[in-house]
Design a protein that fits this description.
single chain, alpha/beta, Immunoglobulin-like, TIM Barrel, seven-stranded antiparallel sheet, 18 strands
Length: about 425
C-alpha cells in the first residue's frame, strides 16, 4: 500500500455504524517503510527476503567488530562490503551494531564467547574509538544508523557496568557525528524479559546517558516475551520500558526502537519455548507492528529471516504464515496516515475517513467487539483471507487483526 490518506476528520468505528470521534493514542503518518525492520543473517551472500521491509539490522551476519578487525588495525572488509552492498541494492536502511570486543582487544578473554572469546569484555577506549572511526569513515554514505552494543544487560554480551557502556556510547557518538552528521545513534539494547538483568542495567544506563547529555537519538530494547509469552506480554514489556524512560526523563525527541523481536524463544530458566505456526503466527506478527503504532514504538526488527530452527518460535521464510502476516500488515500500514486508540479493550487504527472507510481492529488479550463502519463492505485478516461484511453489523475481535474497507481499498493493498 503506497497511499497518502489525509488524516482529516479522524475517527474510529467502535460503538456505532458510522465513524465516530475518538481521542487518539497515536495520530501520525505516513508510516515510513523503515518501521518494518528485519534481520537477514545471510545478507552478505545476497539473500533477499520475499517480503517488503524497509530496514535491516546487521547482527548475526558475520561482521561484528571482532570478525572485521581480526587483528589490531587489520580489517577484513570483504564480508561487510558484501552485506552493506546487498542491503543497499535492496533499498533498505542499515542499522549496524558496533560491538562486541575482538579477542585481541579483550581485557579478559574469558568474558563472553559469541561471536569470539572476550566479546563481552570492556575494550580500551583508544581501541574503541579507532574502530568507530574506521567504520564511520568507510561507510558513512551507506549506513543510516549505528547501534552501540547488543543486549548489554546480559553478561555474556557485556561484562562491564552501565556507566562504562554510557562512556562508550558518548565516545562513539562524538566520532559518528563528526564523520556522518546525518546518522542516527542508537543506544545499546537491553532485553526486558530477564527481569533481574534488565533492572540492573537499563535504568542505570539511562541515568548515565542523562549525565552524558543524551548522546543518542534512539533508545533500544529487545521485547522477546518469555518462552510461553504472547503479544500481550510484549505490550506489558513496552509499557514497562516507557515507564522507566519517563522516570529517567528521557527527552521526548528520543525515539524508541525494538531492535529484536520474536516469540516462543526458550527461557528464561526452565521455561520451554514453543513453535508458533498457522494463523497464530500471522496474527502475532501483524499484531506486533500494529501494537507499535498504538504504543509509540517507531521501529521493530523481526528476528529473523531464516529457515525453521529450535531457537525462534515464528519462522519467516517464503510460504510461511508468519511471512504472510508480515507482508499483509506492511501492505495495510506502510505509507499510510493513521489514528489509533482503544475503546472497551478493542484496539482500532483508522486509515480512512467517512468517504473512504478503512480501519483495523484487534485486541491485546481475550476478545472484544467492533462495529463495521458505514461504507465498509470487506473484511480481511492477516492471512489476507477476505469476506463480505455488512456495515453496522457487530463482529467479534480477537488477536487476529481484521482490516475493514472496500474492494477498491483491498485491491490497493495488493499493489
Amino acid at each position: 500500500m503506497r497511499r497518502s490518506i489525509i488524516a482529516a476528520a479522524l475517527s474510529l468505528a467502535v460503538a456505532g455504524s458510522s465513524l465516530i470521534a475518538l481521542p487518539a493514542a497515536q495520530a501520525a503518518g505516513p508510516l515510513p517503510e523503515p518501521a518494518f525492520g528485519m534481520h537477514v543473517p545471510t545478507i552478505s551472500v545476497g539473500t533477499d527476503p520475499g517480503v517488503t521491509y524497509g530496514s535491516i539490522r546487521l547482527w548475526d551476519s558475520g561482521i561484528t567488530w571482532g570478525q572485521v578487525e581480526q587483528k589490531k588495525n587489520f580489517y577484513w572488509w570483504n564480508g561487510m562490503d558484501a552485506a552493506i552492498g546487498n542491503a543497499n541494492a535492496q533499498n533498505v536502511q542499515i542499522l549496524y551494531v558496533l560491538g562486541g570486543t575482538p579477542t585481541w582487544a579483550a581485557t579478559n578473554k574469558k568474558q563472553g564467547t559469541y561471536p569470539n572469546k572476550g566479546a563481552a569484555s570492556v575494550p580500551k577506549m583508544k581501541d574503541w574509538k579507532s574502530w568507530v572511526n574506521a567504520v564511520t569513515k568507510r561507510y558513512g554514505d551507506s549506513i543510516e544508523s549505528y547501534q552501540i552494543w547488543n543486549e548489554a544487560d546480559l553478561t555474556n554480551f557485556w561484562a562491564g557496568t552501565p556507566k562504562q557502556m554510557a562512556d562508550l556510547t558518548k565516545a562513539a557518538a562524538k566520532i559518528i557525528r563528526k564523520n556522518d552528521p546525518t546518522a542516527k545513534i542508537v543506544s545499546a539494547s537491553s532485553t526486558v524479559r530477564l527481569a533481574s538483568s534488565y533492572k540492573r542495567f537499563f535504568p542505570a544506563y539511562l541515568k548515565a546517558l542523562k549525565k552524558a547529555k543524551w548522546p543518542v537519538d534512539v533508545i533500544a530494547v529487545h521485547t522477546y516475551p518469555d518462552g510461553k509469552g504472547n503479544p500481550g506480554t510484549r505490550v506489558d514489556y513496552i509499557e514497562k520500558v516507557q515507564n522507566d524512560m519517563k522516570k529517567a526523563k528521557v527527552p521526548a525527541s528520543k525515539a524508541l526502537w525494538d531492535t529484536e523481536v520474536n516469540y516462543g524463544i526458550r527461557g528464561p530458566g526452565k521455561v520451554k519455548g514453543q513453535s508458533i505456526t498457522g494463523a497464530q503466527a500471522a496474527s502475532w506478527v501483524a499484531q506486533t507492528y500494529l501494537d507499535n503504532i498504538l504504543l509509540g514504538v517507531d521501529r521493530s526488527y523481526w528476528y529473523y529471516w531464516a529457515p525453521a530452527n529450535n531457537l525462534i518460535g515464528i519462522t519467516l521464510q517464503d510460504g510461511t504464515t508468519g511471512a504472510v502476516g508480515y507482508q499483509t500488515v506492511n501492505q495495510w500500514l506502510a505509507g499510510s496516515y493513521y489514528t489509533c486508540g482503544t475503546v472497551a479493550g478493542t484496539n482500532v487504527c483508522q486509515l480512512g475517513n467517512n468517504d473512504n472507510p478503512e480501519a483495523i481492529a484487534w485486541v491485546s488479550q481475550g476478545s472484544g467487539t467492533y462495529t463495521v463502519p458505514a461504507g465498509a463492505t470487506v473484511q480481511c485478516d492477516a492471512l489476507n483471507s477476505c469476506q463480505a461484511v455488512i456495515p453496522g453489523s457487530q463482529v467479534t475481535i480477537g488477536n487476529m487483526p481484521l482490516w475493514f474497507g472496500t474492494p477498491e481499498g483491498q485491491a490497493a493493498n495488493l499493489q
